[in-house]
Amino acid sequence: MTAKRPKLHHLNWNLLHTFLVIVEERSITRAADRLLVRQPSVSAALQRLEETLGGQLVQRDSRRFVLTKRGELLYKECVDIYRSVARIGDKLSEEHDELTGLVRIQVVTHVVLPALDRALSRLNRKHPSVTVRIDVATSHDIVRSVSQKLGPFGICLLPNPLAGLSCKRLLREEFGILCGRDHPLYGRRNVPLHDLVEEPFVALACGQDGALEPMVALREGAGLGNRTVGSSPNLEEVARMIAAGMGIGILPLAPVQDAVDAGTLWNLSGAGDDLGADLYFISSPTMGMSAAEIAFQRLFEAEIEIDEAEPAAVFEAYLSDTAYPAA
């Protein structure tokens, strides 16, 4: 057959697929059996393909089946095309759908929560057209937003579950009373709270109005922090001032554990001080949520259940809070 210019506008996948099967089976007859058609139909398809592409693709007789150079090139392309088509089928057969919309999530700052990370990943895979907006806010503002149905849900610290809201406890964040290496109390353990009343205090600026539950109990209940010598809204800078010996301070233990292990910070609090606060996932049971928000909530709650069966890594956070409002 004399080579001619290919008529690619006549090319279709059925002809290419038939050719691919012919080559794989090395036989017109076996290809017909595999395709569940009659042998003349397969022969005719091969002939149309050769005419369309302007040259012979297969040299065949009763004893041999050999691809021409043109046939070899076409077969390689057909294999790539088939793989691409198979990938399309795989992608369309995944649990993707046409769900769209915005998922709004409010969280306290510096949250390290594996269940949330996994839920976001699953949401993106399952509903790729859904967008997510994460806003950092204080626990006070998160509770107020959810209570007033301005936002669908949030992740915040609470001393106790709030009436009128769905409150799912996620984990407990432990706090400690810390000092630096040059502080006179460095190295002492289980220091009574009344011995710390007059100590200079370094505070998270966002916690000076009674926001963090451990700070509320200590500062107001025991009179701790009457003389504040330093403050910052940044946890790392508070830790820096404490390590420099300016005074004691109350911080979540997880984010500063490396400094405690290295000896630059020392935990003065005792096991019986019960310094801590609970992290909750809160939502309003009466708020009408969008389909996208419902999908996220279901995925997140499923991941929470996994972590309850197998406890997750420690939550590392510090919180910029104000007093908790009534729901």
Q: Structural class from helices and strands?
A: alpha/beta
How would you describe the shape? elongated
Q: What is the overall number of helices? A: 10
**Overall pLDDT level:** 80
Number of strands: 11
| SSE pattern, N- to C-terminal | HHHEEHEHEHEEEHEHEHEEH
Low-confidence stretches: 207-214, 311-327
For the terminal residues, how far apart are their CA atoms? 84 Å
- Tell me the helix content: 25-40%
CA radius of gyration: 34 Å
Major sheet summary line: 7 strands, mixed
The proportion of strand residues reads 15-25%
Question: What tags apply to this protein structure?
Answer:
327 residues, alpha/beta, 10 helices, 20% strand, elongated, disordered C terminus
Nutshell version of this structure?
The protein has ten helices and eleven strands. The protein is 39% helix and 20% strand. Helix 5 links the parallel strand 3 (101-107) and strand 4.
Q: If you had to describe this structure to a student in words, what would you say it looks like?
A:
- The chain has about 325 residues and is of the alpha/beta class.
- About 40% of the residues lie in helices and about 20% in strands.
- It contains ten helices and eleven strands.
- The chain has helices spanning about 15-25, 30-35, 40-55, 70-95, 115-125, 140-145, 215-220, 235-245, 255-260, 290-310; strands spanning about 60, 65, 100-105, 130-135, 155-160, 165-180, 200-205, 230, 250, 265, 275-285.
- Helix 1 crosses helix 2, helix 1 crosses helix 3 and helix 1 crosses helix 4.
- It is elongated.
- The model is unreliable at about 205-215 and about 310-325 (pLDDT under 50).
